Automatic annotation (TrEMBL):
InterPro entries: Acyl_CoA_acyltransferase, GNAT_dom
A Pfam family recorded for this sequence: Acetyltransf_3
Superkingdom of origin: Bacteria
Residue span(s) of domain N-acetyltransferase: 10-174
Protein name in the entry: GNAT family N-acetyltransferase
Length: 178
């Protein structure tokens, strides 16, 4: 029997203290800063404190980050996040990062499908949204494949490499709420 946070390919698990190196490399990779609104690097000390509080309930932290692992050998594939959780309107942003060596192998699709199902069925979230730069066709295709609908373009929404870029706003409504 499959658990709530897995399928036959991947498992999602909570952050562990051993994930410090993973977080340090991801959070300090400047390629990701434009989509994560990061302006400066994170220290190991700050990330250790974050990991110590990673067990906070989504209603306290307003976010949830899980590690994506391969079911066959527990290799760490990436991270998936709910962020900006708004309990009043029952919505959250969603993001996913697959480590470069595991990209284009179907892991992102598996992880996003499992995480969306968890968000809708267990957390009873009404709406998920994603903000994806229009140039990021891989992510746009992934979210479209998983049922997200493009509902608009945010003009010149983010600044990357000194230039403003448009961002697609995608949305998925919990089907049991329709």
């Amino acid at each position: 029997m499959m658990g709530l946070l897995e399928n036959d390919v991947i498992s999602l698990r909570a952050l562990e203290p051993d994930d410090l190196d993973l977080l340090f490399s991801v959070e300090n990779n400047t390629r990701f800063w434009e989509v994560s609104n990061t302006l400066a690097p994170y220290s190991r000390d700050l990330l250790v404190k974050y990991l110590k509080n990673a067990d906070q309930d989504i209603y306290e932290a307003k976010q949830l980050r899980l590690v994506i692992t391969r079911k066959s050998d527990a290799s760490i594939l990436g991270l998936v996040d709910l962020f900006d959780f708004n309990p009043q309107h029952n919505r959250a942003g969603i993001g996913i990062l697959i480590l470069k060596k595991y990209q284009q192998k179907g892991y992102a699709t598996n992880a996003l499908e499992v995480f969306v199902k968890y968000a809708f069925e267990h957390l009873d979230i009404h709406q998920l949204y994603a903000n994806i730069p229009v140039k990021n066709t891989g992510s746009l295709n992934l979210f479209n494949k998983c049922g997200f609908e493009q509902i608009g373009i945010q003009k010149e929404w983010i600044k990357a490499n000194g230039k403003f870029q448009d961002v697609c706003l995608l949305q998925l409504i919990n089907p049991k709420h329709l």
